[in-house]
Design a protein that fits this description.
By secondary structure, the protein is α/β, with parallel strands linked by helices. The protein contains five helices and seven strands; from the N terminus they run H-E-H-E-E-E-H-H-E-H-E-E. It has a single domain, classed as Periplasmic binding protein-like II (D-Maltodextrin-Binding Protein, domain 2, 3-Layer(aba) Sandwich), CATH 3.40.190.
Length: 148
């Protein structure tokens, strides 16, 4: 059996979730926005493009990707289920697109408080634990990305 980076990342994600012990409740990573638009839905390809710095519009507005790096498991879910790349390949791709085409990097935050501040600006899209959505004013669920 040949191991690919994606399968290794999946095994790491599963072992990290297992090492945390049995959760008191199900852990779910969700994609959300603070825009009140009930029709906001992003196809998988649109979401991937958004986090690679490509222009993605919804109802004429530019969406702003915000990468939530406040938790290792969240980051692993992002890399596997949103951009489908390893950390190294993702960073290399962002650098390449930035240098060759001038594409901006997504905003990165390292805490829930920083995420709340960034999401206060219109048209932001990010991901977080479902249990943290209550702490983010005006957060509207777009879809579930991962469930443990």
């Amino acid at each position: 059996m040949r191991l690919t980076r994606r399968s290794v990342l999946g095994m790491m994600l599963a072992s990290a979730a297992h090492a945390a012990g049995p959760p008191a409740r199900e852990r779910t990573v969700v994609l959300f926005s603070t825009d009140a638009d009930p029709d906001l839905s992003l196809a998988t390809l649109e979401l991937r493009k958004l986090y690679l710095g490509f222009t993605v519009r919804h109802d004429g507005h530019l969406l702003r990707p915000i990468r939530n790096r406040s938790d290792e498991t969240l980051d692993a879910v992002f890399l596997q289920y949103v951009v489908s790349m390893s950390e190294e390949i993702y960073e290399r791709r962002l650098l390449e697109l930035s240098l060759q085409q001038g594409r901006p990097r997504p905003i990165e935050v390292n805490s829930l408080d920083a995420l709340v501040r960034e999401m206060a600006t219109p048209h932001g899209v990010s991901f977080a634990w479902h249990s943290d959505l209550a702490r983010i004013p005006g957060a509207h669920l777009i879809r579930v990305l991962w469930r443990a």
